[in-house]
Amino acid sequence: VQLQASGGGLVQAGGSLRLSCAASGRTFSSSVMGWFRQAPGKEREFVATINWSGSITYYAGSVKGRFTISRDNAKNTVYLQMNSLKPEDTAVYYCAGGKSASRGTARYEYDYWGQGTQVTVSS
Fold first, then answer.
1. Do the strands 117-122 and 9-12 form a parallel or antiparallel pair, or are they unpaired?
2. Taking a C-beta distance cutoff of 8 angstroms, is the pair 63, 90 a contact?
3. β-pairing, 57-59 with 45-50?
4. Distance of alpha carbon 26 from its chain centroid, rounded?
5. Sheet containing 67-72: order of strands
6. Measured between alpha carbons, how far is residue 38 from residues 87, 95, 101 in Å?
7. Tell me: the pLDDT tens digits for 43-76?
8. What confidence tens digit (pLDDT) does each residue in 9-36 have?
9. Residue 35 — left, alpha, or beta (φ > 0 → left; ψ -120 to 50 → alpha)?
10. Collapsing DSSP states into helix, strand and coil, what is residue 12?
C-alpha cells in the first residue's frame, strides 16, 4: 500500500487547512488510518486515528475539538480537517495505515506511511 499526503501549506493562526491522504491498494478499507506530526527537533507524535468504518476516532488532547479525521473508503482517502490552527501546530504531517492496529494511537501499530506534508502556521 502506498500513501500520498497533500494539502499542507502556510496559514495564519486561526485559519484552517484540510489534509488529504490517498491510498493505493485493496487493504485501505479494512485498515485503521492515522495522522501523526513531527515538528523540528521533536519526535513524531500522534494526532488522530480512525477505524475502518469511520465510526471510532481518537484525538490527541492538543488537537481535540479543533481537528476532525474522516475517511471515504470509496475514494481510498482519509482526511484531516484542521481548524483554529495555532503556531504550535506547525509540523510535517504524516498519514499512516495499519492492517492490525488496535486503538491506533502508537506509531508501532502502523505498517505503512506517507511521505508527509508541511503545515506552517504563522502568528
1. parallel
2. no
3. antiparallel
4. 20
5. 2-6, 17-24, 77-82, 67-72
6. 13, 11, 21
7. 999 999 999 999 999 999 999 999 999 999 999 9
8. 999 999 999 999 999 988 888 899 999 9
9. beta
10. strand
